[in-house]
From TrEMBL:
Keyword match Zinc: yes
Annotated ranges, domain Glycoside hydrolase family 42 N-terminal: 15-378
Listed Pfam families: Glyco_hydro_42 (PF02449), Glyco_hydro_42M (PF08532)
This protein's UniProt keywords: Glycosidase, Hydrolase, Metal-binding, Zinc
Organism: Paenibacillus algorifonticola
List of residues binding Zn(2+): 115, 158, 160, 163
Highest taxon of the lineage: Bacteria
Annotated Beta-galactosidase trimerisation domain residues: 392-603
GO cellular component terms attached to this protein's record: beta-galactosidase complex
Protein name: Beta-galactosidase
Reactions this protein catalyses: Hydrolysis of terminal non-reducing beta-D-galactose residues in beta-D-galactosides
């Protein structure tokens, strides 16, 4: 028996019935049916309508709306309304409000103004969620739940008094004794030694920078407590509803996606990446497909045309682009593709935001895009429901914990999301099918693993990665990986700790290589080197942990060396065979066009060596999403950059849409066109 989110591809939009009367709702439903909308999401900002005064709660009108939508063939995802607590919760109660790093209490009037760790806020949240789950949970047409909306989109770590107490308890639970914390953090630096846990401050305003351990641990604490808040909501809903639950998130927000989604049922995200930055759109598909592996993810929000607020607006998407956004999402594993909002906000701070229908009820420039998406959905639905996304043979690790480390230590304005997206774009350009995975993901089925920009590697991750290598995988580590402990301090046994010993190298220097005229040479190419870097000396077999004098497999080899600059002759790329596989160290980041060429050469070299065959010969800007059927494979070929292109088919196939034979060799796709070929 299929679950409530299976059996169709969903095409939806965000609806705000609290803002409009019944006549407008009827008009919207009629237009939705014309456009092919089969699901709406609603309720994330509706708390004041449901509970205008404390304890005066009425959710019956939502039941009526869900029934009306259902009668018109439109399903509903119901949100919990905790993103916008009403004025009665905020007014006169600053202790319930969010406090930023400057010590400023943020007032009522936008969203996310309450501290999600405040006990009163959590208690009232549980009450309103329980009423929603009790009265709506069994209604026909309700197919799922969304917690809140965009956790930590506008705020980061709260510094209120309630968070301070929880922080002290969290530290005591983590470290056990104050002596162990002092030792782990190295608190004798600048007389930051603590005698009791309740003396440890939050990382608020100070004359200079806070201690790295304090900052990073507070970020991890905040992420953990937010996940606990989500789990409280999940528990309340599940007392009354068996429907699947998600949260609408983004890699831009201050959360730990892996931890947050531990008890959620399917992945969902929003993105407003521009058409010019289409790899920043695709990276979400390749990540969220793996957040809850084996279950379709949802694009819960994107724009039908352009995004905007009172302060800014984006360039509208070119004609045809939204259609291929949707096709790419569905082909890469999405079960739903939704717009924000359906009807333009007539009031508030996002009035300029693009929509499907205007505030005065007319079709916008985005409406034609929605119609195109619906045509593609109908054309592809049967094909995609009969197949599933193929697991890639190459995986790259995405880490929100690494994001926290690099927020503490951004050096020259580095951030994990930007670094990973830039690295990811090279894989897309090379035509290599790829999975983005979280730190705790299983590694079975992969042949090549990339771990760039992860300052701390946990013992568990190291053990699993080395097991992957021993079984025949190739693991490329770095740059900026492994140089910090779990407490955000330097290793003291070796620059990269245990990783260095496993790699069979000695890190001779760690330094900012930018501006030192360092040139790296590898794979017959050369390029300037940049970024905070490690350079190495390969060790002989007798010097490597676990190696025997006769075991030549344990010797490390320099693959790329530094020429000129401060460390000529040092290695910046090394490799060492371990078991049946290989550990490759990338200690410095090649720069500029020459650097991009060198990195691509390196990735192709190790993809070849690892036996990565799930890759495609395609012009840049055109991608392939491979899917597995029962005894057959399909390629969904999509031009994403609007320039058109071609893909080389390795054998004759069948056009899955027309049934015509498609010969082997180059297949041309036009501007924002898609093709589906069955082999």
């Amino acid at each position: 028996m299929k679950g409530p989110l299976e059996g169709k591809l969903y095409h939806g939009a965000a609806l705000y019935p609290e803002l409009w009367d019944a006549d407008v709702l009827a008009e919207d439903i009629a237009l939705m049916k014309q456009a092919g909308i089969n699901v709406v999401r609603m309720g994330e900002f509706i708390w004041s309508r449901l509970e205008p005064e404390e304890n005066r709660i009425d959710v019956r009108f939502l039941a009526d709306i869900i029934q009306t939508l259902h009668e018109n063939g439109i399903d509903t995802i119901m949100c919990t309304p905790t993103a916008t607590p009403p004025i009665w919760l905020s007014h006169g109660h600053p202790e319930r409000l969010f406090v930023n790093e400057k010590g400023e209490t943020l007032g009522h009037g936008s969203r996310q103004h309450a501290c999600t760790n405040n006990a009163y806020f959590r208690g009232r949240s549980a009450i309103i969620i329980e009423r929603l789950a009790q009265e709506l949970g069994g209604l026909p047409g309700l197919i799922g739940w969304q917690l809140d909306n965009e956790f930590k989109a506008h705020v980061a770590e709260c510094m209120c008094a309630a968070c301070l107490q929880l922080w002290h308890s969290w530290l005591e639970q983590r470290y056990g004794t104050i002596e162990q914390l002092n030792e782990a953090w190295g608190t004798h630096i600048w007389s930051e030694y603590y005698n009791r846990f309740d003396q440890i401050p939050q990382p608020g305003a100070t004359p200079f920078l806070h201690h790295a351990s304090l900052q990073t641990m507070y970020r991890l604490f905040s992420m953990e407590k937010l996940a606990e808040f989500a789990e409280e909501q999940i528990a309340v809903i599940r007392r009354h509803s068996a429907l699947p639950i998600t949260h609408n998130n983004s890699i831009a927000f201050h959360v730990d996606i892996e931890r947050l989604f531990r008890q959620l049922d399917f992945g969902a995200y929003d993105t407003y990446a521009s058409s010019a930055n289409w790899p920043a759109y695709l990276i979400n598909c390749d990540l969220w497909r793996n957040v809850k592996r084996g279950k379709p993810f949802w694009v819960m929000e994107t724009s039908a045309s352009y995004s905007g607020s009172l302060e800014s607006y984006a360039t509208p998407h070119p004609a045809g682009y939204v259609r291929v956004e949707a096709v790419a999402a569905y082909a890469l594993g999405a079960g739903g593709f939704c717009y924000w909002p359906w009807r333009q906000q007539r009031a508030g701070s996002e009035q300029p935001h693009g929509s499907v229908v205007s505030a005065w009820g007319k079709k916008t420039i985005g409406y034609a895009n929605v119609v195109q998406v619906e045509q593609a959905r109908r054309e592809l639905e049967e094909i995609l429901l009969a197949t599933s996304p193929m697991q890639a043979q190459l995986a790259m690790t995405y880490s929100d914990r690494a994001k926290a480390y690099l927020r503490t230590e951004p050096l020259r304005k580095l951030n994990h999301r930007g670094l990973v997206t830039d690295f990811y774009a090279r894989l897309v350009a090379l035509g290599i099918h790829r999975d983005l995975i979280t730190e705790g993901s299983e590694l079975g089925g992969y042949k090549l693993l990339l771990t760039p920009f992860v300052p701390f590697l946990s013992p568990d991750y190291l053990d699993r990665a080395i097991a992957f290598v021993r079984e025949g995988g190739i693991w490329i580590v770095g740059p900026l990986t492994g140089g910090r402990t779990e407490h955000h301090t330097w290793h003291t046994d070796a620059a990269l700790g245990k990783l260095e010993k496993l790699a069979g190298v000695e890190t001779t220097f760690v330094y900012p290589i930018d501006g030192t005229d360092a040139i790296g040479q590898a794979f017959g190419l050369h390029a300037p080197l940049g970024m905070w870097s490690s350079v190495f000396e390969p060790l002989g077999g007798n010097d490597i942990a676990g190696a025997s004098a006769s075991d030549s497999d344990h010797r490390a080899t320099a693959i790329g060396c530094v020429h000129s600059g401060l460390t000529p002759g040092a290695a910046f790329i090394t490799e060492r065979r371990i078991g049946q596989g290989k550990l490759v160290m990338l200690g410095s980041m090649p720069q500029g066009d020459d650097g991009d060429t060198l990195l691509r050469r390196m990735l192709l070299h190790y993809a070849d060596e690892a036996g990565v065959t799930l890759r495609f010969e395609a012009t840049e800007g055109t991608i392939v999403a491979p899917r597995q059927g029962d005894g057959y494979v399909i390629w969904v070929i999509i031009n994403m950059d609007g320039a058109g292109g071609h893909v080389t088919l390795p054998q004759e196939g069948i056009d899955a849409l027309s049934g015509a034979a498609v010969p082997a060799g180059p297949l041309t796709v036009g501007r924002y066109e898609y093709r589906v070929v069955r082999f």
